Amino acid sequence: MDNEIIKAYLWQEVIRLGFSPSSERDRKNWLFQFGRSLKDFWEIEEYPPTPTKNSTFAASLTSSTKINMLIDYSISNLSKYTVKFLYIPSKQELIWKHDVDTTYFLFPKESILNKFKKLQQAKKEFKNFAPIVRTKIIKNVSDGLLFHPAVHQHIDSPIDEHEMRIGGGIDNPFVFLFHLRYQLCPDKDKRNKEKERLAQLFEETIKNDSIINASDLLNTKAS
Fold first, then answer.
1. How far apart are CA 102 and CA 147, in angstroms?
2. CB-hemisphere CA count at 13 Å for 83?
3. 1 contacts 125 by C-beta, under 8 angstroms
4. Using alpha carbons only, what angle is made at residue 184 by residues 160 and 108, rounded to the nearest 5 degrees?
5. Could you give the angle at the alpha carbon of 188 between the alpha carbons of 182 and 189, nearest 5°?
6. What torsion, rounded to 10 degrees, do the Cα atoms 116, 122, 125, 129 define?
7. Which SS3 state, helix, strand or coil, does residue 201 take?
8. Is residue 134 a contact partner of residue 126, using CB atoms and an 8 Å limit?
9. Would you give per-residue pLDDT tens digits along the chain (223 residues)?
10. 64 with 43: CB under 8 angstroms?
11. What Rg, from alpha-carbon coordinates, does the chain have?
12. What's the rounded Cα separation, in Å, for the pair 78 and 52?
């Protein structure tokens, strides 16, 4: 199987393992663990508030003072969500809005992969690669999905942080929030260590056919 096809199936598998909580309880727990992970990772003074739940999950997240951004998210379901970016020093001026509504047509890449039913073959070939090759492939997948999406934007004003890359094609709300967790971390060393941790976690999970708990994904077990 071509390596690019293997990566496509692994991309889908990483989303399933880490970013597709199925029940309302699982989604609530994922978002709770997500919030708990930010205090240390973003170097903020307090834990963010627990997300409220009415017809949607919603919460506001304040970034580090270095970035000075407020993030408001609202998640209706896995295919409909909104994230607003507000600049704090200018009385919370709205500078960006990421909106996803897949009631409109979206290229059905997941359905196409599922139709050919090659996931198990892709995973088998991945497991049979030499460790150095497995690591390279999973890093390539996690970079494209979370850390450096091929399609991204930079906010050059009023926040001049060129290393902050906001992925423009992310339709899964949990992928997008985790992506923001990484992008808005003010410490480059922490970001680099997080990339290594996640690549190892995904590689070991897929290799061993195991699962990922939200606390493992978000590294909150010790907090």
1. 23
2. 22
3. yes
4. 105
5. 105
6. 150
7. helix
8. yes
9. 999 999 999 999 999 999 999 999 999 999 999 999 999 999 999 999 999 988 899 999 999 988 889 999 999 988 899 999 999 887 788 888 999 988 889 888 889 999 999 999 999 999 999 999 999 999 999 999 999 999 999 877 777 677 889 998 899 999 999 999 999 999 999 999 999 999 999 999 999 999 999 999 999 976 5
10. yes
11. 17
12. 17
Nearest to 28 by CA among 63, 62, 69, 58: 58
Which segments of 22-98 does DSSP mark as H helices, in order? 24-41
Sign of CA dihedral 153, 156, 157, 161: positive
Cα Dmax for the chain: 54
Query: Which structure tokens are listed for 172?
Result: 């899964």
Residue with tokens 């994904």: 217
Report d(CA 18, CA 103) in Å as an integer.
24
Helices and strands (H and E) in the chain: how many: 8, 7
**Tokens 């997941």 -> residue:** 110
